[in-house]
Amino acid sequence: MADQAPPEWGKKIAHATLDVGGQILQGGDVVPGQYEEPRGMNITLSMKDPLEAERIFNGLSEGGKVQMPLQQTFWALRFGTFVDRFGIPWIINCGEQSQ
Description:
By secondary structure, this protein is mostly beta strands. The chain has one helix and six strands.
């Protein structure tokens, strides 16, 4: 479709698929003039492996703004929040604490 799109769309993403632990997230850029900053939502990834949670958190938060560093909490082995470099808010929640 490159020959059918305006030149300023050259770096846009038409379709993307992200496989996160067997869970598929799909998305893409909207046409110019239709973008609105995300508000009142976040994407939450729930994981079981703390090392995988750290890998995902570090990769997705790179270039963004960490709001709560990934850490152990009273309810989770790892929990953290950030806004990625594209302005998307994320929550990473990993496992439950043993009682």
